[in-house]
Design goal:
Shape: elongated
Low-confidence stretches: 1-21, 29-33
CATH class of the largest domain: Alpha Beta
CATH topology of the largest domain: TIM Barrel
Distance between the termini: 138 Å
Number of helices: 26
CATH architecture of the largest domain: Alpha-Beta Barrel
Largest sheet: 8 strands, mixed, barrel
Number of strands: 26
Helix content: 40-55%
Radius of gyration: 54 Å
């Protein structure tokens, strides 16, 4: 603490007496009794009392100074004339540029003037006398607290009060850090792109808003300041900062506010308590999530609806079915599931394009909606399949009436981009509880009924029957067992000879897949090949047969070829060329001894990829054969698109050939065509000597059928070829 430089010797303190009380009269002493020694003793006693009082006053003053020195605020005491009487260390630290002027009896006005002249008070620059006058007025007529900026950038809060004797007590608080925080807050608040609102905790009145909030809500600042936060809330009664919620729960909640134009917006609100001046307040950051909520709603809709027609998809349909089935369990009503499949929809796509096909599907969906009741459910499950769930069904005839009404509505022509499109439909019907008590079982039963309607009737409806489920279960069992057989190489190639009709020699053998089932015995290819093609198992099955056939054929004589059938599905995987190359390399079989058979249905696709693969295979040296010739739509055009090495006449033209002049004419034409193109002609399904004689007479090159041999395992083939070699040598 700074002390005055000169301390004047205090005057002798006068003895004082309490006011309002008359002094007791001193007993009169006779002058005769007075003595000089008594008077001197009295004076000594009085002097000792005075010195003790002075020492006590000094101690009190020292304690007062120590007390104000430890205060965190600056304290100054001025006499009625504005002169320094006492100040503490903090006061000197605050005004360190002027502290050299502080001394007992110095006038504050003088120190202010010197400080202004030095530039200690930047606010006084250019208006020095006016600023000094304002400062002295605030000192001698104190009122509200005020702030003072010093030359080093610090800000001081000043509060002054008059004492009873006309003096002045001043309090100084360094609020520089507080002002910096306020400035930072103001910068973050005013310039923040996120709408922010400051609310009073008592009364919920809006104290301040930033520019982003004004722009976002559409209210002017004055309107905001007359509102409470509840004025903005659309439905919620509680406050955003209500107790009892964690910060995560607070952020997860969605609030709805009303903008000035009446529109509703969705918000996530983050709140933080703070002091605004001297009152508690709540700062709200308002994150507009309206677009996010709309996007979430769109995603939720898309997750449960078909994007093309807007109808529910399978997931939502099952939920709706479960609710309807739950209701029927409490009543005698039934639920009917009608699965509708459009007939020949692929032809519309192929001839008119997918754009017309999409419009047709939307048109079908619209007609179905208009045909059904509000309580019925409608969904699109696959590209050309729709499902209707009819509630409140009392008897099967109710489902029949709806099915006929739907078929009539669907069958009316559609006018699409100038095209009049007519489409038919088939319907499979399943009813609860007989055909299933849950949604999945009913959908499965209706699907099986639809498959029957499409395969046997078309254009009408079919009810589910228990035998359908048995067939489906059997088909599923075949798929499971077939998958296991392929994985464990349980399938075997059997070989049927291809015989040169001129010499009777075996020139090649066709590999035919056989499945010796451990429980069911030998399973017919007609039973499991369709399942393999439907499930995609035809690709690993075909790859397995190709490898096994090449490996077996490598053990045969060099002049005997092996023929392997290819499914059109194997060309779609894109790796057929690599599979053939690997099979030849691993087995060591020359490419010229491998013959690949394809059907005309493959070339129906007119795919550049298919033709490229065929040419690449032929470039390897592999021979290509067209199987089942004459059963397709345009066989001759295919012979122009690709140079085949062999044409195989379908067995339907060979059967009873000797008794059928028309078949003879067809065979004669095919043989003539083959000779003209320089390709080998092979007849399939030769079973009688009469058929063989006709084929030889027409000049057919090769024959294949039970007349020559059934399909045999490789061990028997090796013996057969060995016997042929021995016979030739003899």
């Amino acid at each position: 603490m700074m002390r005055p430089k000169k301390i004047k010797k205090p005057k002798q303190a006068k003895l004082s007496r309490p006011r309002g009380r008359r002094p007791k009269p001193m007993p009169k002493v006779s002058s005769r009794l007075r003595r000089p020694g008594v008077e001197i003793g009295e004076l000594v006693r009085q002097r000792a009392q005075a010195e003790a009082a002075i020492a006590e006053a000094r101690k009190s003053n020292a304690r007062l100074r120590e007390a104000i020195d430890i205060l965190p605020q600056g304290i100054v005491f001025l006499d009625p004339e504005g002169r320094y009487t006492l100040w503490n260390r903090k006061y000197s630290e605050i005004y360190k540029r002027s502290s050299d002027l502080f001394e007992h009896g110095a006038r504050l006005e003088d120190t202010i003037r010197i400080g202004v002249a030095r530039g200690d008070y930047p606010e006084a620059a250019g208006r020095e006398e006016e600023w000094i006058a304002e400062r002295l007025k605030k000192m001698y007529q104190p009122g509200e607290r005020h702030e003072q900026v010093l030359a080093d950038g610090r800000v001081v809060l000043i509060e002054e009060r008059l004492t009873s004797d006309g003096g002045i007590v001043g309090l100084r608080v360094d609020i520089t850090e507080l002002k910096q925080r306020e400035a930072s807050f103001r910068l973050l608040f005013d310039g923040n792109p996120v709408p922010m609102i400051l609310c009073a905790l008592d009364g919920e009145r809006i104290l301040a808003v930033n520019d982003a909030a004004i722009a976002h809500y559409g209210y002017v600042r004055a309107e905001f300041e007359r509102m409470t936060i509840r004025s903005l809330q659309a439905f919620d009664a509680e406050l955003p900062w209500a107790a009892g919620r964690t910060s995560d729960e607070q952020a997860a909640r969605t609030w709805k506010h009303v903008r000035a134009d009446g529109t509703l917006i969705d918000l996530a609100i983050y709140s933080r308590r703070l002091m605004h001046g001297d009152q508690p307040a709540m700062l709200l950051a308002l994150m507009d999530i309206t677009e996010r909520k709309r996007a979430e709603a769109r995603l939720a809709f898309m997750a449960q609806h078909d994007s093309l027609t807007g109808l529910p998809n399978r997931n939502l349909l099952r939920q709706q079915m479960d609710e309807m089935l739950q209701h029927t369990r409490r009543s005698t009503d039934k639920v009917a599931v009608l699965m509708l499949g459009l007939d020949n929809f692929k032809a519309v796509n192929d001839t008119l394009g997918h754009g017309i096909g999409d419009k047709l599907l939307r048109g079908v969906a619209k007609r179905l909606r208009s045909t059904l009741r509000d309580e019925d459910a409608l969904a699109r499950l696959n590209s050309d399949e729709f499902t209707i769930v009819q509630g409140g069904v009392m008897r099967p005839e109710d489902a029949v009436l709806l099915a006929r009404r739907i078929l009539d509505a669907i069958g009316e022509p559609y006018l699409l981009e100038g095209h009049s499109v007519v489409i038919g439909a088939s319907i499979g019907i399943a009813m609860s509880p007989g055909d299933g008590e849950d949604s999945e079982k009913l959908l499965k039963s209706a699907d099986m009924a639809l498959s029957r309607a499409k395969s046997e009737f078309r254009g009408t409806f079919s009810f589910f029957e228990a035998e359908m489920d048995a067939r489906a279960q059997s088909r599923r069992k075949i798929e499971i067992d077939l998958r296991d057989a392929i994985q464990n190489e349980g399938l075997r190639p059997y070989y049927q000879p291809l015989v040169d009709l001129a010499t009777g020699r075996i020139t090649g053998l066709e590999a035919l897949v056989r499945w010796p089932h451990p429980e069911r015995g030998m399973i017919s290819p007609g039973e499991f090949i369709p399942v393999a093609e439907e499930t995609g198992l035809i690709n690993p099955l075909g790859s397995l047969m190709l490898r096994r056939a090449c490996t077996d054929a490598a053990q045969w004589p060099d002049d005997v070829r092996v023929a392997v059938n290819l499914s059109p599905l194997q060309f779609r995987t894109g790796n057929l060329l690599a599979l053939v190359t690997d099979a030849l390399r691993q087995s060591g079989l020359p490419a010229r001894r491998l013959e690949l058979e394809i059907t005309e249905t493959l070339l129906l696709e007119k795919s550049s990829q298919v033709l490229a693969t065929l040419h690449a295979l032929r470039a390897l040296g592999v021979r290509m054969s067209m199987d089942d010739f004459g059963t397709g739509y345009s066989s001759l055009s295919y012979l122009r698109s690709f140079p085949f090495d062999k044409i195989k006449i379908d067995q339907s033209f060979v059967r009873d050939l000797d008794a059928n002049p028309d078949a003879q004419a067809i065979v004669r034409s095919i043989v003539s065509l083959g000779m003209g193109l320089g390709v080998t002609i092979t007849a399939e399904g030769v079973e009688t000597e009469a058929e063989l004689s006709c084929l030889r007479a027409e000049g057919c090159h090769e024959g294949q059928g039970f007349l020559f041999s059934r399909a045999r395992p490789n061990a028997e083939v090796i013996s057969l070829l060995k016997a042929q070699r021995v016979a030739t040598a003899a």
